[in-house]
Design brief:
This protein starts with 8 loop residues before the first strand and ends with a strand. The protein contains seven helices and five strands.
Amino acid sequence: DMFLPDAFTFSQSSLQDFVDCRRRFQLRYLQRAAWPALQSEPALEAERFAQQGAAFHRLAQQFLTGLPAERLEPLAAQAGLGEWWHSFTQAAPHLAGIADPASLRLYPEITLTAPVGQNRLLGKYDLLRLSPDGKLTIFDWKTSRQRTQRKWLASRLQTRLYPYLLVRAGAYLNGGNPLAPEQVEMVYWF
């Protein structure tokens, strides 16, 4: 049996680890052991790719908070994000609806939490977009090397947890009005 520390906070990653492999959950979140072990690809390549993903998320946040794309482009090039950045800046005005920012509110890189029993749920959202009609769209940037299959994404806990948590903890984004599940949608952007 596993004993959770008091007021343990569950994220989509920790919940997915618990479902996929309880031993991995125990090692990673309870014993705080380094996990996973090195994978088959070279460690430096995996680390470089993780750094690119983190750099992309930072640049997307800066862009969505108002920094012009042309000021961020040198940083994107330096991080090796040329193609990703070009695709994002071409699609973002339409994808996130920022072509008409006065009509909606954007919340890039926002964290929400909600109590569940003695513990908490935590979600780190790449972007939340509130439309004038009260619809909230969750955008999640995926920087994997290959596009993930829809069926696999649908089975992941993130796909269920993020909308659930937004309904539970996101009323303040909607002027204090409670959110209904039908007001929330989730979009994965590759």
